[in-house]
Design brief:
Elements (H helix, E strand, L loop, with lengths): L8 H7 L7 E4 L6 H10 L4 E5 L3 H12 L9 E5 L6 H7 L5 E7 L4 H5 L25 H7 L2 H12 L4 H14 L5 H11 L2 H4 L7 H11 L2 H15 E11 L2 H14 L20 E3 L9 H6 L7 E7 L1
Parallel strand pairs: 1-2, 1-4, 2-3, 4-5
Antiparallel strand pairs: 5-7, 6-7
Helix pairs in contact: 1-2, 7-8, 7-11, 8-9, 12-13
Bound molecules: S-adenosylmethionine.
Length: 315
């Protein structure tokens, strides 16, 4: 069972222009909401390759398949418990060279957020873990207890846009000298002690940005995304589409700039009177402005509020 409510479901799958028989990658299986609709579109001749670095997501979907929940779809399904930054190598090992569509619905699922054992949320009492892939070495506990002050502050600023980054980092460094910081409530208390009263009383919890930043560092989210975008465009067939849903400015800015950069033709310096580079764009941007959730969707799924869908087509 999943509690995850799929965001921008129809908008994303429609944007991929899927037809029966196509080969499609869902880079972020999660609760499988997008994958299920993809399966319905590609029919029995189609192939779905679904990635998730969290083996629990893969296991749950596998169980669903065994229970015959998709008996209408005879499509070939490959479940890959791997980071999407390994997209190309994973496809090669399955004997797949090119695909017709790729989607990525970034970040964590509601299942992961609700699991207090993962310590992703500041709401419950859990270990400072935050890994999506539980085999990975880096945990939030290591980051909080072992990173230097300057690195902690940089992460909070860069990944969380946290205005009190330096002060929170300082309080962490002082607190960990007394005892190791291992649980989420310990960290929440440290953050509360580092920020002014009016910040603590804001609608958005004062630990939100720190927790987001630590999660991004632990899971190396922006690094994986950069590597994925590059490979995704490489493995797409001409005319194939890539749809990316982002949830915060770090990943949206990265995606938007990467798309713009790769949709450019000539890359000669502006002072050149004539093009000498002969550079051709790799992609065409389909969504000039990102697609966002409708009022109807927001009414039933507040998590969709920050979702932005960007779509490109391989040239
Ligand atoms: C927002 S959820 C996807 C939800 C899914 N689209 C649905 O409709 O149920 C994101 C999922 O992607 C996985 N994920 C995030 N980053 C990943 C990465 N770099 N490689 C593989 N999986 C990743 C997470 O573990 C999580 O299960």
């Amino acid at each position: 069972m999943t509690i995850h409510k799929t965001v921008l479901l129809n908008e994303t799958v429609e944007a991929l222009n899927l037809k029966p028989g196509m080969t499609v990658v869902d880079a972020t299986l999660g609760g499988g909401g997008h994958s299920e609709l993809v399966l319905a579109k590609i029919g029995e001749e189609g192939k779905l390759i679904a990635f998730d670095q969290d083996h629990e997501a893969i296991d749950k979907f596998e169980k669903k398949l065994k229970l015959g929940n998709f008996e209408n779809s005879q499509a070939k399904i490959f479940l890959v418990n791997q980071n999407f930054s390994k997209l190309k190598a994973s496809l090669t090992s399955l004997g797949i060279e090119k695909v017709d569509g790729i989607l990525a619905d970034l970040g964590i699922s509601s299942d992961q957020l609700a699991d207090t054992d993962r310590g992703i949320s500041f709401m419950g009492d859990g270990p400072l873990d935050m890994r999506m892939n539980r085999q990975a070495e880096l945990t939030a506990e290591k980051v909080v207890n072992e990173y230097a002050h300057c690195d902690l502050a940089r992460i909070l600023r860069q990944y969380g846009d946290e205005q009190y980054a330096s002060s929170i980092a300082s309080k962490i460094v002082v607190a960990r000298e007394q005892e190791r910081i291992t649980r989420t409530p310990q960290l929440v208390a440290i953050i509360q002690s580092a920020v002014p009263g009016q910040y603590r009383r804001k609608k958005i919890h004062c630990a939100t940005k720190t927790f987001q930043a630590l999660r991004m560092e632990v899971n190396q989210e922006l690094e994986s995304l950069s590597s994925f975008l590059f490979q995704a465009v490489e493995v797409l067939r001409p005319g194939g589409r890539l749809a990316v849903i982002t949830f915060h400015s770090g990943e949206d800015t990265l995606t938007k700039h990467w798309f713009r950069e790769n949709a450019r033709g000539c890359i000669c310096p502006p002072q050149f009177p004539q093009c000498r580079c002969g550079h051709k764009p790799a992609i065409k941007i389909i969504t000039r402005k990102p697609t966002v959730a409708s009022e109807e969707e927001l009414a039933v799924n507040p998590r969709a509020r920050s979702a932005k869908l960007r779509v490109v087509e391989k040239m």
